[in-house]
Design brief:
Elements lengths: L1 H20 L3 E9 L2 E9 L5 H28 L19
Antiparallel strand pairs: 1-2
Keywords: Membrane, Signal, Transmembrane, Transmembrane helix
């Protein structure tokens, strides 16, 4: 039962992400009625509202930033510098 719940959760999450990638559709259809022609316009919006798309994008950016921070911290900050001294004091003229 637990694996079924996790599967349904991941399926719902994937469907939400895919619905943000689909575009809005607008279509026109000409209907013939006797001598006159009617034009009907159909408009289908996105499945989820715009604020939800913005929220998902913001959370995604935070996650990507956090992952990049951890990776850069491991690669750059935690790397060993070895025995090489990176700082050498300048020579001073003590003779006046």
């Amino acid at each position: 039962m637990a694996s079924r719940k996790s599967f349904l959760f991941y399926l719902a999450a994937i469907l939400v992400i895919l619905s943000t990638l689909t575009h809005e559709a607008e279509a026109r259809r000409r209907i013939l009625r006797g001598r006159r022609v009617m034009t009907r316009t159909y408009y289908r919006g996105l499945a989820i509202p715009a604020w939800a798309i913005s929220l998902i994008a913001g959370i995604g950016m935070l996650l990507v930033g956090g992952i990049l921070y951890v990776v850069m911290r491991k690669l750059v900050l935690s790397s060993e510098t070895g025995t090489l001294n990176t700082y050498q004091p300048a020579m001073q003229n003590d003779q006046v």
